[in-house]
Amino acid sequence: MIINHPILGPRDAQEFTYLGDASLIDRPDWQADNAAEAFHDYLYLRDNPAGEHRELWFHEQGDRSWLVVTRNTVTHDILNVELARDVARARGRSK
Amino acid sequence: MRYSGLKVIKEALTGHKGWRPAWRNPEPKAQYDVVIIGGGGHGLATAYYLAKNHGITNIAVVEKGWIGGGNVGRNTTIVRSNYLLDGNGPFYELSLKLWEGLEQDFNYNAMVSQRGILNLVHSDAQRDAARRRGNAMILNGSDAELLDASGVQAMYPFLNFDNARFPIKGGLLHRRGGTVRHDAVAWGYARGADMRGVDVIQNCEVTGFRIENGTCLGVETSKGFIGAGKVASCVAGSSSRVMEKAGMRLPIESHVLQAFVSEGLKPVLDGVITFGAGHFYCSQSDKGGLVFGGDIDGYNSYAQRGNLPVVEDVVEGGMALIPALGRVRVLRSWGGVMDMSMDGSPFIDKTHIDGLYFNGGWCYGGFKATPASGWCYAHLLATGQPHDVATAFRLDRFRHGGMIDEKGQGAQPNLH
Questions:
Q1: How, if at all, do strands B59-62 and B199-201 pair?
Q2: pTM as predicted
Q3: Is the CB of A18 inside 8 Å of chain B's CB atoms?
C-alpha cells in the first residue's frame, strides 16, 4: 500500500506503524459522570467496518507525523489522507 | 452410510458406484429450535454436539458460501494445548482430547496427526517463560518437555543454531500437538450433523435479525425469514459485520493473516516448529509442501489477501531459522480474516438480546479450538449455562477487568 502523505507525497506503508480506528482521537472526558462507561467503549469497542475505514497511521520511519488515512478494508484502496493534527483541531481536540 | 475399510474395498471392486453425497442440500424450514449462523468448523461442530450430546436436532446451519470455504479451510491446520492461563488451559486441553478421539467419534478420516510441536527458545528469559508455561500445561493435564539445545539438535539438526540475533538455546516440546486435515474437519462435522437431522443450508446469507421486545425471533436470509428459538452466531472473521445487524458493537477488529505452501518436497520436517521471535512457524503436509506462516499484516482488513512486506518478513524468518529453505519455491499464499479480540482471547457467551448467542474473537487460534468451541457452545445453547472450561470467555469481560491476556497484545499491531 502507498500512503499519499500530505506533506511528503507518496510513501510506502512500511514506513508507518498502525494504531487503529481514528475515533481514538475522541478521548472521552475523564471527569464526566459516565466516564467509566465511556472509556470502556472508547478502549474496547470498535465499529470494524467492511469498507471505508478512517484510521490512524504514524510515520515512524519518516517525519513522525500522525495521519488519518481513509482506506477501504475490503480492497485496501487508500481514498484520503489527512494530517491527524488538522482532523483533531477540526474536532476541537487540540489547542 | 458409515465409512469403513471394508466399504472402501467393496467400492473399489464395484467401480465406486455406491458412494453417496456426505450431506443433504435441504431448503430451509420456516422454524427451527436453533439456527446457527456460519457453516465453518465451529458452527458445524456446534450443530454436531447439540445433536449428539444434547439431543437437539431441529437445527439449521446457514452458511453464506459453501462448507469448508471460510477460515476452516484457510488456516495452517495446527492443533495444540499449550496455553498458560487458567481461563484458557482447560478449554484447549478439552479440545485436544476431543481431537484425539474425533475420527472414531464422527467416523471420518480427519488425518489427526500428533507429530509434536516445538516452540524454540533463544535466551534465559525465554527458557524461564517456557518452563513456567510447560508447568502450567502439565497442571492442566497437557504434556510438555523442556529441551536443551542438544535435544533440539537431535530432532532437527538442520536448524540454524548459531544465528547471531536468535541462537537456539532449546525448546518447549508439546508431543501431543500436531496437525489435522482442516477440510475434513468441516466435512466430517457437516456429515455427522446431517446424519443426525441437522439442515446444513449453503449459499444462504444472513441479511438481518428479527428482534422484537429484546428477543431474537429468527434471521432474515437470502432464502427468506427463518424463525428460531435460539440464534447462534459463529462467524469469526466477520463477527462485527453480522452482529452489527443486531445493533451490537464488539471488542473486535478484523485483521488479515497470511499463510504459505511451498512446492512438494521429500519428507524433511516431521513435526511443527515455531520460531516466535522471528515471526515464523512451519510444518510439512502429507503431500510434502511446507506449510508456514508468520504474523498478522497489522491493519484492519476484510480482504482475504495480504501485502508483500509481510511475505518478505515471513520468508526472512524462515531463512534465518532454516537456511536450507533458500532453494524452495513458494507454491501459493493466501490470507484469512481474523477476529482479533482486544485481549487475544475468544468469546462464547449470551448477548444482551434474549435468544441471541455469540461465538467469535478467535484471533489466529480458532482452528485448534474447533471441537471444544462446538462442545462448549452447544452446552451453552442447550443448558443456558457456560461450560465449566469456558466460563472466562465472556463478552463483557472488559467491563469487569476479566481479561484473558495470554499474550497481552490483542488486536494492537505494534505489540505483535
A1: parallel
A2: 0.95
A3: yes
